[in-house]
Amino acid sequence: MDYSKLSKEVSYALRHAPWEYELELDHEGWVDVEQLLQALRFDNQWKLVNEHDLSMMIKVSDKKRHEMMNGKIRALYGHSVPQKIRKDVDTPPSILYHGTARHLVEHILLDGLRPMARQYVHLSADLDTAKLVGKRKDSMPALLVIQAEKASNESGIRFYRGNDVVWLADYVPGPYISQL
Questions:
Q1: Measured between alpha carbons, how far is 180 from 146 in angstroms, rounded to an integer?
Q2: Where residue 85 falls among pLDDT bands split at 50, 70, 90?
Q3: Pairing of strands 121-124, 159-161
Q4: 151, 157 in Cβ contact below 8 A?
Q5: Which residues, 6+ apart, have CB-to-CB distance to 87 below 8 Å?
Q6: Burial of 95 (0-12, 13-18, 19+ CB in 10 A)
Q7: Which of 25, 97, 135, 146 has a beta carbon 3.0–4.6 Å from 130's, enabling a disulfide?
Q8: Which residues pair with 169 in a beta bridge?
């Protein structure tokens, strides 16, 4: 295991782009270890990464970028994004986007977007971010268009501002989703 390379990947996820990994940091920057591991495993190079690997990564690092405690992990410094993903109900933009694996599209269009093992469905305000997120699951991801304003107005679907590019929802029904 290349712990230096793993440390760089974890740092990027926790300090700079949690939305690309669909991570939900708390107000102190903590995220569940299992949530991070699930996100990392979408990339074949980290398919077998486990909690012990994260512990070793922290132990052998001379820069001491991370800490783990009580089933959670965080970056200690160097954040370029707000540490807390706020979950305040807000009026969404008219359109949001979601990048996903191509094989999931038919199911999503029928059943809607659900948070699965996460607390919220992660949506993007721009196509570039949706593509980055989707590429973690598929090298040529499907891009979905979410009629967010319509879903909010017609069905009372609640949307939450995560940050400037990330929006969250409890669930998005299929009728408000189309493929780009």
A1: 10
A2: very low
A3: unpaired
A4: yes
A5: 120, 160, 162, 168
A6: middle
A7: 97
A8: 121, 159
* Amino acid, res. 8: K
Written as one string, the DSSP assignment of the chain is: --HHHHHHHHHIIIII-GGGGT----TTS-EEHHHHHHHHTTSGGGTT--HHHHHHHHHH-SS--EEEETTEEEE-S---S-SS----EEPPPS-EEEEE-GGGHHHHHHH-B--TTSSSEEEESSHHHHHHHHHTT-SS-EEEEE-HHHHHHHH---EEE-SSSEEEES-B-GGGEEE-
The per-residue pLDDT for 137 is: 87
pLDDT at 81 over 70: no
Predicted TM-score (pTM) of this structure: 0.64
Q: Compute the distance between CA of residue 139 and CA of residue 116 in angstroms, rounded to an integer.
A: 21
Question: What distance in Å separates the CA atoms of residue 15 and residue 142, rounded to the nearest whole number?
Answer: 26
Q: What is the pLDDT of residues 100-118, one digit of tens each?
A: 999 999 999 999 999 876 6
What is the identity of the amino acid at 58?
I
Pairing of strands 166-169, 66-69: unpaired
d(CA 18, CA 11): 10
Q: Name the pLDDT band for 94 (thresholds 50, 70, 90).
A: very high
